[in-house]
Design the sequence.
């Protein structure tokens, strides 16, 4: 059970949050221009890496804000939490 | 036999407080402070159960939560009986009743003993091999298993006890109150850390508290005496909370731990009433100190499972702590010095120790000299090759070990005994450490797995960290604690320590016998009757992974989770397969560490508190008017309103007719409502709905369909434009929270440039939906000033009005196909407005109807219910709702997916109407649809999604999804049921008033 530091509310129990899958996948601006394969790539293909993964999280039972998290999936260490629109940390 | 085996009064037992209890129907006596196990042993009862597979007699083996054999049923004759309790953990109380669990028909009668002779037929994997074939024999096997296996009996009635949950936040959590835990907790609290100290036992002090070894001294006192003073001081320390009888069950990430606090199990029956029995502590600790100690290992040799064979440390605890001797003629069998302490303890109390068998060649520590001095015979370099005695051990046979430890030599010596203490060394209790994600490292010299690393948030101290000798424990604890808590000094910086150091070690995972292994029974897992032989067989059959061997042999899969024998299983696998133990890894230690009751897990969340109920403002009226309720999400919705002895069917038919013939009223308050404001609100709706929204005039309503990005229908509802930049969206009852979440997601992450604000207002409004040809007349009575003409207030429009000075929003929208008005009032006036409608409607026989009638009426019109007629695989095109998908809009959520090759296929499952050939037969929802009856295998074309008997059409109607259904209009299909095949034909989805004339009737 993670302790998640919501950038808007502070540390809260994982129960208050909802995970939203891989982060930094931008919705294509012109979907009609894409081939089926390109659209499928956006729609279905997600990474599932062992190591540091960038994910979207939502403080669903709190401020309802979405934010991003860098989490090491091998040991569940939360490396960083940053707001939507901010660049992911490089380290 | 009622021999009293109390040896010496113990300060931990209150001999002035005699307690009677029943075991297997007979009454016995013990004292306050006894466990069921210590009280039974005091009554000379060792045999407490039968083994799982071979039905062998089994006795009490340990004194703690690792007990594999003494598993009992508490209150066996009661409806609220509890299975799988460990006799070694149950504190006796007046009125306790317990019985052996695995002993059908009785512990002294051998029905399954036959299995012992048939043992060659029950090798590892016997469940997989035997019970799977032939299939028809399963029932016979099942009978055998259910009757003879020790699975216990589950309670038959509701648990009457009270359970509770509590959240605790602390700076430092210390798990285990042995010497390390006590010193750690004390020093943490003294340094202003808010500290919590937990121990599963009822007394603090771990094993040191009953230590009698005079060579172990702290500040020139016996270690036990010194520790008692430390414990005494604990109550004066601020910032420190101590909880006994509290067992940590799980250790999750981020120092989140679950512990079970036992509050009343030890109390007399009469004192338990109206008290919380167990409490689940949900602990979030900034730092955790694990001081969980170590578990003594058995030794694995032929017939090592007879009653009277116990862990050496347990014998010591029974004699030193409980004042009970386990036998009058004792032998110890060991590979280390700790058995000598147990032996000396007994000797000092005047109990006979016949011999000590030691597999080591020699050892010359002080304790061994003392044993020599008192004349106890030590057999160095010997091993036990066999034991005798059926319901209690009576003798052992020993032989000399070869130098390499793989065989025995010389002549056999037989020694008689009634108790055998076995000491195979110590296994650090790393269960919680690994649960938290910690990795282990194998110390090859000492043959133990120890924590690989401490962290800033967690350390392991004492024997669970691999420190076993007093000076080593205290020294390492002091060093670790200072770093961990960032403090300069502790109050045991300059403590004087004296103790023996073990010098000689020898470890043999599987001890040899003079007989071939095939003829021996060296048990590794007592509870599951798995022997070393089974493990070797599994390896011979090709199993290599420790996880596979575990499951194939069932080693470590009992309620004790293999706390005793897992290390030996690993050792035997490593030796047999010729690999290093460190490379083998271990099986996963899963929570809970010891079993939890369901009561503890659910706490107060039982009965009506199991889930939250949401009730509408009109709920009291529904109850008064005898509504039956239906759960929709968390809502309690009126389902139908039966009159007198009407059945559900009769009520629904009556309600449906009334709504179409005159007037009906539905409580629609549960529909999700989202208030949408902002200068980009119209653009936002354009992007989330499939149809166009920019041109919707203020005061108008529009039905919208929302897709997922994959093109599948997600939700639907009517949205009304209240102002230039203000909309109110309705969603399905069940989808409200998810829709809001999804819209927020797009707003915050994809379109942050849009000026839009979303607010859930579901609970702010109560909604009464007035429907039927007379609804206009009723509304006119309520609001005479409002012009209800089609010109002023047409279908799909909205008015804000005052009803008795209450501001209400009225939408003229319809989910039934009838002329219909939805009156939205502030929630607190919901019931008043509803009453007003009922009063005004009396002359028109206004009929309240529930969700069932609502579903029927909308099915007559072919309106979908998202989640009933759709299942996340239906596009709007599949639903024949092409009309709602804008071709002009450049983009909306899910649009691109509607043009994927797969979603454009002609033969997708599509929504159609179904009519039965016999209009009186109503199809079952979920029933499969086929086109051929004699084809095998038959192709399933789809299934029925909605089905009713329509009183307005006087025939059965249904909606269904059918492969390629759109092009099958009029085609005959079949719905095969258990006893009959129902002929149906594909029809239009709209069964009633196809031209929508009634909307303006
Ligand atoms: Zn928040």
Sequence:
């Amino acid at each position: 059970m993670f302790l998640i530091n919501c950038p808007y509310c502070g540390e809260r129990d994982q129960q208050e949050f909802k995970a939203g899958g891989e982060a930094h996948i931008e919705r294509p601006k012109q979907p009609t221009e894409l081939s089926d394969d390109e659209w499928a790539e956006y729609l279905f293909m997600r990474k599932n890496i062992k190591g540091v993964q960038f994910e979207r999280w939502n403080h669903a039972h709190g401020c309802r804000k979405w934010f991003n998290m860098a989490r090491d999936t091998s040991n569940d260490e939360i490396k960083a939490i940053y707001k939507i629109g901010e660049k992911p940390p490089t380290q | 036999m009622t021999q009293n085996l109390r040896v010496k009064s113990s300060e931990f037992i209150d001999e002035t407080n005699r307690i009677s209890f029943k075991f297997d129907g007979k009454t016995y006596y013990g004292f306050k402070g006894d466990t069921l196990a210590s009280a039974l042993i005091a009554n000379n009862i060792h045999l407490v159960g039968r083994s799982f597979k071979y039905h062998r007699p089994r006795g009490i083996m340990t004194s703690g939560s690792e007990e594999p054999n003494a598993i009992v049923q508490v209150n066996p004759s009661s409806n609220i009986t509890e299975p799988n309790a460990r006799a070694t953990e149950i504190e006796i109380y007046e009125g306790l009743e317990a019985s052996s669990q695995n002993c059908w028909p009785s512990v002294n009668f051998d029905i399954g003993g036959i299995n012992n002779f048939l043992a060659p037929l029950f090798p590892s994997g016997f469940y997989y091999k035997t019970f799977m074939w032939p299939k028809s024999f399963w029932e016979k096997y099942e009978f055998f298993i259910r009757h003879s296996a020790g699975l216990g009996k589950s309670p038959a009635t509701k648990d009457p006890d009270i359970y509770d949950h509590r959240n605790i936040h602390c700076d430092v959590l210390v798990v285990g109150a042995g010497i390390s835990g006590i010193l750690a907790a004390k020093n943490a609290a003294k340094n202003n850390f808010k500290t919590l100290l937990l121990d599963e036992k009822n007394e603090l002090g771990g094993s040191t508290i009953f230590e009698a070894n005079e060579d172990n001294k702290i500040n020139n006192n016996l270690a036990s005496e010194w520790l008692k003073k430390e414990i005494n001081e604990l109550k004066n320390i601020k910032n420190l909370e101590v909880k006994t009888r509290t067992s940590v069950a799980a250790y999750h990430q981020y120092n989140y731990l679950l512990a079970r606090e036992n509050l009343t199990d030890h109390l007399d029956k009469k004192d338990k009433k109206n008290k919380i029995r167990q409490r689940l502590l949900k602990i979030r600790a900034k730092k955790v100190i694990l001081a969980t100690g170590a578990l003594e290992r058995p030794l694995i040799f032929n017939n090592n499972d007879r009653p009277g064979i116990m862990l050496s440390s347990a014998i010591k605890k029974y004699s030193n702590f409980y004042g009970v001797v386990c036998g009058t003629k004792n032998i110890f069998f060991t590979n280390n010095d700790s058995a000598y302490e147990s032996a000396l303890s007994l000797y000092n109390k005047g109990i006979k120790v016949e011999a000590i068998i030691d597999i080591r060649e020699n050892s010359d520590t002080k304790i061994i000299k003392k044993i020599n001095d008192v004349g106890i015979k030590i057999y160095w370099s010997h091993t036990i090759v066999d034991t005798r005695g059926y319901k209690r051990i009576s003798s052992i046979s020993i032989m000399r070990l070869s130098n390499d430890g793989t065989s025995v030599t010389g002549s056999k010596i037989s020694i008689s005994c009634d108790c055998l203490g076995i000491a195979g060394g110590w296994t650090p209790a790393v269960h919680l450490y690994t649960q938290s994600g910690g990795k282990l490292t194998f110390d090859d010299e000492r043959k133990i797995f120890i924590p690989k690393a401490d962290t800033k948030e967690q350390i392991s101290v004492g024997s669970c960290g691999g420190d076993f000798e007093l000076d080593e424990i205290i020294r390492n604890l002091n060093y670790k604690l200072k770093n961990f808590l960032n403090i300069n000094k502790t109050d045991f910086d300059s403590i004087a320590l004296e103790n023996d150091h073990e010098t000689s070690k020898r470890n043999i995972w599987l001890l040899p016998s003079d007989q071939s292994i095939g003829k021996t029974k060296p048990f590794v897992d007592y509870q599951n009757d798995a022997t070393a032989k089974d493990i070797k067989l599994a390896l011979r059959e090709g199993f290599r992974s420790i996880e596979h061997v575990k499951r194939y042999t069932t080693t470590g899969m009992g309620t004790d989770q293999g706390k005793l024998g897992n290390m030996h299983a690993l050792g035997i696998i490593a030796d047999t397969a010729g690999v290093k133990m460190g490379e083998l890894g271990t099986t996963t230690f899963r929570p809970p560490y010891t079993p939890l009751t369901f009561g503890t897990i659910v706490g107060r969340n039982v009965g009506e508190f199991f889930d939250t109920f949401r009730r509408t403002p009109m709920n009291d009226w529904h109850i008064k008017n005898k509504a039956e309720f239906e759960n929709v999400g968390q809502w309690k919705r009126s389902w139908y309103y039966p009159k007198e002895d009407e059945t559900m069917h009769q009520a629904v038919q009556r309600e449906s007719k009334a709504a179409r013939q005159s007037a009906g009223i539905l409580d629609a308050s549960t529909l999700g409502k989202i208030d949408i404001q902002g200068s980009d609100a119209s653009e936002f709706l354009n992007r989330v709905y499939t149809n166009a929204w920019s041109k919707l005039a203020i005061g108008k309503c529009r039905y919208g369909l929302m897709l997922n990005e994959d093109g599948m229908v997600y939700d639907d509802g009517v949205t009304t434009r209240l102002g230039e930049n203000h909309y109110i969206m309705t969603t399905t009852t069940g989808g409200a929270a998810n829709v809001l979440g999804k819209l927020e997601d797009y707003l915050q992450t994809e379109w942050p440039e849009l000026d839009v604000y979303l607010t859930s207002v579901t609970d702010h409004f109560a909604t009464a939906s007035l429907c039927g040809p007379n609804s206009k007349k009723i509304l006119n009575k309520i609001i005479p000033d409002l012009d209800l003409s089609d010109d002023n207030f047409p279908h799909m429009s909205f008015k804000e009005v005052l009803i008795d000075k209450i501001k209400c929003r009225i939408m003229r929208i319809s989910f039934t196909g009838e002329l219909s008005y939805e009156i939205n009032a502030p929630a607190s006036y919901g019931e008043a407005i509803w009453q007003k409608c009922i009063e005004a409607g009396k002359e028109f026989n206004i009929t309240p109807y529930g969700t069932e009638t609502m579903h029927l009426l909308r099915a007559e019109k072919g309106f979908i219910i998202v989640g009933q007629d759709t299942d996340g695989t239906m596009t709007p095109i599949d639903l024949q709702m092409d009309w709602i998908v804008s071709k002009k809009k450049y983009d909306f959520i899910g649009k691109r997916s509607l043009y994927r090759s797969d979603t454009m296929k002609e033969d997708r499952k599509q929504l159609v109407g179904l009519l039965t050939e016999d209009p009186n037969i109503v199809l079952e929802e979920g029933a499969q649809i086929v086109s051929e009856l004699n084809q095998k295998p038959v192709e399933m074309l789809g299934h029925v999604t909605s089905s009713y008997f329509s009183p307005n059409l006087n025939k059965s109607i249904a909606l269904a999804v059918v492969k390629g259904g759109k092009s099958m209009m009029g085609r005959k299909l079949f719905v095969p049921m258990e006893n009959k095949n129902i002929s149906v034909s594909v029809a239009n989805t709209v069964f009633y008033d196809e031209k929508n004339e009634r909307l303006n009737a």
About this structure: Residues 3-83 of chain A form a domain with the Folate-binding fold fold (CATH 3.30.2270.10).
